[in-house]
Each structure stands twice: as structure tokens, then as C-alpha cells.
């Protein structure tokens, strides 16, 4: 079941096109990574879907609420982690959360605040002023704020931006945990490794949608799949034996490494290994050469720039 | 739910206001400073130039109008009529208090929220624009109003302490009460709504404050009209002015809600 349905969403600021004709669907419980360079329209898309700014044209239904007509109920159903945490620095963490919780109906603020401050590891510092918090703590507190009313859908705008590796890892663990609870997460990020770790599907945007698929499918779409076999005393007999295999598309030899291009490595790997061994090869290592998501991303962006 | 949300904003604003020393000083100390300073000027004017001032043509016109409005002034001696003329200007002068407080609280309130990034988080909650604006306006308007009334009370007390107790009755006219309990709330609302409009449209607090300044000029204009004898505000004209301001308040409220564009505030303002 789609929790986010976007059709032909467009946003123009004056003459400048920020988001053009964006259409996508996000299923319940899915984590969608939303990638793109600076100024690609990621934050604008999140702001439109979170009902903060109105689209110029197109429609979107988020958690069953059409935007921009049903904003109040939409805001009851979604949680938004903004680019900057945005707290009242002179207030304690608890007081900040109490204030934001005060806008939601039907929540037990005291219980929810305790639950999420504990989950975020901030319970012991709950009475400290937010101004004394580190950036990572503020980000975790912002996540707690976004979750207070138990939203079905979470919009996270650059949740690990500017955090040190340890704090970023903590936030990623929390996102994994939230995903595990079945929440739908729309994750806007620059961090490709993070996207790969956390997201079921990845959308790449540069004003308009360039690609939307799983990391696996994107790899297959943009790059041939390769198996790399490291063989002691690699020789032409071995390479000839491999070439003869019907599923092999191309091979390359360099030093003692044999790179084999093929379509279905999972299925063909045993036969490939057998052919090398039968030809007298002593295999040291076999692995699939997975193109990093970064390569796919850069290829997409480069192609778009060349248009 | 609306009442709960407005109250939530109101309490938060008060917590912000009263945990910031400079803002708290503006609300509590500035009104007394304004009135104290003006009382000093009045004392100096009456004691060092009172008799001579009464011979000046413009003041004679004003004193004539004052006598029509308050016939008991004719029984006063020396510079006392001039003193009553000046003390009666405090009915309008007190109106500066909510304007000054508005300029220093509500404008910063919205601009600070934007700069700290809390406004976007706030706009992602189910709060409606009018609830947010009303909560913020009330959070400043209520202390302003209370302070104006408190200062007005202290002003009357100080008059007695300064030996002008016999003149208090000539200050406590229907105009005084209409100004304090009808015009002051109307001016307070107008100042805060203009502050909100200012901070919705401006990119920083200073530009926002300039918009509130437009209220000050007509107030000084009113004082000038009275002191120079061009016009005198009687109870009826004060009532008319108050009603006009209340109508303007409603119009400005609608404009404020329309001008408070979530989008332009979130998108155009940069930290």
C-alpha cells in the first residue's frame, strides 16, 4: 500500500524551476533514499510533502492526506526532521519537547517524552539547556521531536549532515530501528553509503527524477556485473576455458586477476569456478566487483549535466 | 484545541521573554523610564518656564480648549493650568508603552524563530497560522497592557508624591479612562499586528521594527495637536478614535494572516 503518492509535482520559485514533474510512490514501511546534488530540489520536495510549502502544480497524498488542502491532519500524521535542528536553546530538552508535543491531539506528552528521550539516550540530560548540547545530541533530540506523536511517515532531511562519524552512526542506527518498527521513511541525504545501508529504494533527483529503483537494480541498469577471480599463475589456458562458457560476455586479465563480465553471477559462479579449477587454476579469491552507489550516482548526474 | 495551542505558544513566549534579561528589562523597566523621563521634563518645564509658557500664543489656544474640556482649570493659579495641560498629554503618551514593547518583543520573536530554525519545525506541527500569530501577539500584548495600566497607576501616585495631588482629579477625566481601557488595548493590538506583519515581510528584526514605528508618529501628532491648541480630544472624539482603531485592528489582523506566508518565510530567509 502506498503511503506517499506523488504525481507530477512541480515547484517554481519565480522563473526558477526547483522541482519538475516529480512522480513517485513510497510503500508502507519502506525507506526511500532521496539523493541529489545541492540545489537539486530535495529539501523543496520534503517541504512540499510535509505541507510547509505549496506545490506550483501536481498532487501528492501523504498518509492519506492530500496536500496542500489537508495540512493540519497531515501534520498529525507525519514527523519532520528539518535541516537544522531548531530548538529554543535556553530551554531544557524536556521543556522543548513539551512545547512541541503541545500541538498534537491525543498524545500523552509526559509518557512520549520519556519514551523518546530514553530511546535517544538523552534522558539523563533532559533538564540541561539545549544550548549546551552537542550537534549530535541536538540531532537526536530533533528525531525525538519528530517521533513524539508516533507519526506513520517520517521525513528526514540530511539527518547526519555535519555530525562526526560516531554521532552519524548513532543516528543511522536509530533510523534502522525506526524502519524496523514499520515506519515509512523519506530520507533526504548526500551520503551515498548511508543511502545504501538504510534504504530499500533510491531516488536520484536533479530538479526532475533521474532514477528510482533498488540499489541492486540500479547497479544492473548502469553497469555490467563482474566476477573477479584471483588465480595463482594465471595463464591463457585458464582464460580460454572461461571464454568458452556460454554465459560469459567478456573477460579481462591483469596480473593474476581474471575479470569476467556476466549477467547472473549468483547462478553462474559455481560453473565459472569449476571451469577455472578444471583448467588447472589455483583459486585464491573470488568476489563480485560491485560498483559503489557513488559511481551510479555520479554517472547519472554526469549524464544529466551533458544533456 | 485552538485554545490549547494558543496557550502553548503564549506560555512558551513568556518563558522565552522572561528568561532573557534584556527582553525582561524592556517590558518591565522601559515603561517606567519613559514615563519617569517625561515627568521630569514636565517638572522642569513647569518650574522653570511655566509662567512664560502661558503667555505664548499656541499654549494660550491650548489652555482655552483645556478650560472648555475641564472647566475647573479656570480656578487654578500660576502655572498650574499649564501643568494640567501637560499632564493631560500623558493619556496619549502612555500609548507609547505598548508600541515600544511590541517593537522589541514580537518582531524579535518571529525573526529569532526563523534564524534558530525552530520556525520550520513549528510550521510542521498542526498549528494554524492564525493560532501562531495570535499566540505570539497575545504573549506580548498582555504584559504590555498590564504594564501600561500599572504605569498609569504609578503615574497618578507620583503626581500626589510630587505635590500635585490636587490636580489628579483633572487628569482622571472620562478621556483618561477611555484612553486607558479602550484606546490602549486597540493601540496594543495594532502595534503587535504591525510587528507581526513587519517580521513576516522583513529579513531582520530591525527592518521589522521600522514598520511598528508608523504608529508612533500619529501619537506624537495627537500630542502636538493638543499642546498647540489646534484640537482637543474630548470623550466623544476619543471614543470615535478607539472604535476606528478597533476596526483597523480587524483589518490589519486579516492582512497579517494573509501576509504571513509560511512559504516565503521558510524559503526566502537564510540563516
What's the topology here?
The complex is a heterodimer of chains A (307) and B (271).
Chain A: E1 2-13, E2 16-27, E3 31-35, H1 42-49, E4 57-62, E5 65-67, H2 71-77, E6 78-81, H3 93-101, H4 109-119, H5 135-147, E7 153-157, H6 165-180, E8 184-189, H7 192-198, E9 201-206, E10 208-213, H8 215-222, E11 225-232, H9 236-243, E12 248-254, E13 257-262, H10 265-278, E14 282-288, H11 293-306
Parallel strand pairs in A: 3-8, 3-9, 6-7, 7-8
Antiparallel strand pairs in A: 1-2, 1-4, 4-5, 9-10, 11-13, 11-14, 12-13
Helix pairs in contact in A: 3-4, 4-5, 9-10
Chain B: H1 2-18, H2 21-28, H3 30-53, H4 57-69, H5 80-88, H6 90-93, H7 96-116, H8 118-123, H9 129-161, H10 168-171, H11 174-201, H12 205-227, H13 235-259, H14 262-268
Helix pairs in contact in B: 1-9, 3-5, 3-9, 7-9, 7-11, 7-12, 9-11, 11-12, 11-13
Question: What brief labels describe this structure?
Answer:
heterodimer, A: 307 residues, alpha/beta, six-stranded mixed sheet, four-stranded antiparallel sheet, B: 271 residues, mainly alpha, 14 helices, elongated
Amino acid at each position: 500500500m502506498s503511503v506517499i503518492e506523488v504525481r507530477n509535482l512541480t515547484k517554481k520559485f519565480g522563473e526558477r524551476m526547483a522541482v519538475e514533474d516529480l512522480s513517485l510512490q513510497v510503500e508502507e514501511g519502506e525507506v526511500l533514499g532521496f539523493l541529489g546534488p545541492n540545489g537539486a530540489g530535495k529539501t523543496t520536495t520534503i517541504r512540499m510533502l510535509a505541507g510547509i510549502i505549496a506545490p506550483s502544480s501536481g498532487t501528492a497524498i501523504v498518509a492519506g492526506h492530500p496536500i496542500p488542502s489537508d495540512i493540519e491532519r497531515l501534520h498529525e500524521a507525519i514527523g519532520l526532521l528539518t535541516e537544522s535542528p531548531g530548538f529554543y536553546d535556553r530551554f531544557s530538552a524536556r521543556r522543548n519537547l513539551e512545547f512541541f508535543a503541545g500541538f498534537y491531539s491525543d498524545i500523552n506528552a509526559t509518557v512520549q517524552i520519556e519514551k523518546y528521550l530514553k530511546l535517544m539516550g538523552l534522558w539523563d540530560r533532559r533538564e540541561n539547556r539545549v544550548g549546551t548540547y552537542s550537534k549530535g545530541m541536538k540531532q537526536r533530540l530533533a528525531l525525538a521531536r519528530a517521533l513524539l506523536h508516533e507519526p506513520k511517515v517520517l521525513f528526514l532531511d540530511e539527518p547526519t549532515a555535519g555530525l562526526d562519524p560516531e554521532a552519524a552512526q548513532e543516528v543511522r542506527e536509530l533510523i534502522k530501528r525506526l524502519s524496523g518498527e514499520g515506519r515509512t521513511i523519506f530520507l533526504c541525504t548526500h551520503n551515498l553509503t548511508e543511502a545504501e545501508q538504510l534504504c530499500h529504494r533510491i531516488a536520484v533527483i536533479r530538479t526532475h527524477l533521474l532514477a528510482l529503483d533498488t540499489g541492486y537494480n540500479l547497479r544492473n541498469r548502469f553497469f555490467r556485473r563482474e566476477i573477479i577471480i584471483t588465480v595463482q599463475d594465471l595463464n591463457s589456458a585458464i582464460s580460454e576455458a572461461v571464454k568458452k562458457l556460454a554465459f560469459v560476455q567478456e573477460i579481462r586479465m591483469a596480473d593474476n586477476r581474471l575479470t569476467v563480465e556476466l549477467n547472473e553471477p549468483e547462478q553462474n559462479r559455481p560453473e565459472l569456478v569449476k571451469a577455472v579449477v578444471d583448467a588447472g587454476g589455483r583459486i585464491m579469491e573470488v568476489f563480485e566487483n560491485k560498483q559503489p552507489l557513488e559511481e551510479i550516482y555520479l554517472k547519472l548526474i554526469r549524464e544529466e549535466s551533458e544533456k | 484545541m485552538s485554545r490549547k495551542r494558543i496557550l502553548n505558544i503564549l506560555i512558551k513566549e513568556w518563558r522565552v521573554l522572561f528568561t532573557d534579561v534584556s527582553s525582561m528589562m524592556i517590558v518591565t523597566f522601559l515603561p517606567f523610564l519613559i514615563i519617569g523621563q517625561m515627568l521630569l521634563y514636565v517638572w522642569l518645564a513647569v518650574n522653570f518656564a511655566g509662567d512664560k509658557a502661558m503667555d505664548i500664543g499656541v499654549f494660550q489656544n491650548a489652555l482655552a480648549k483645556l478650560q472648555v474640556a475641564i472647566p475647573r482649570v479656570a480656578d487654578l493659579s500660576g502655572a498650574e493650568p499649564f501643568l494640567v495641560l501637560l499632564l493631560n498629554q500623558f493619556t496619549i503618551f502612555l500609548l507609547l508603552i505598548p508600541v515600544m514593547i511590541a517593537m522589541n518583543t514580537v518582531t524579535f520573536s518571529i525573526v529569532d524563530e526563523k534564524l534558530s530554525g525552530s520556525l520550520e519545525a513549528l510550521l510542521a506541527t498542526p498549528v494554524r497560522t492564525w493560532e501562531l500569530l495570535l499566540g505570539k501577539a497575545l504573549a506580548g500584548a498582555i504584559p504590555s497592557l498590564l504594564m501600561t495600566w500599572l504605569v498609569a497607576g504609578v503615574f497618578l501616585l507620583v503626581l500626589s508624591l510630587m505635590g500635585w495631588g490636587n490636580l489628579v482629579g483633572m487628569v482622571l477625566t472620562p478621556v483618561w479612562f477611555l484612553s486607558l481601557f479602550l484606546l490602549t488595548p486597540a493601540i496594543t493590538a495594532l502595534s503587535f499586528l504591525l510587528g507581526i506583519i513587519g517580521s513576516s515581510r522583513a529579513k531582520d528584526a530591525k527592518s521589522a521594527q521600522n514598520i511598528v514605528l508608523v504608529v508612533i508618529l500619529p501619537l506624537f501628532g495627537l500630542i502636538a495637536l493638543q499642546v498647540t491648541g489646534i484640537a482637543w480630544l474630548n470623550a466623544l472624539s476619543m471614543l470615535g478614535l478607539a472604535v476606528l482603531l478597533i476596526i483597523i485592528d480587524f483589518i490589519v489582523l486579516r492582512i497579517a494572516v494573509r501576509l504571513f506566508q509560511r512559504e516565503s518565510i521558510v524559503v526566502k530567509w537564510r540563516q
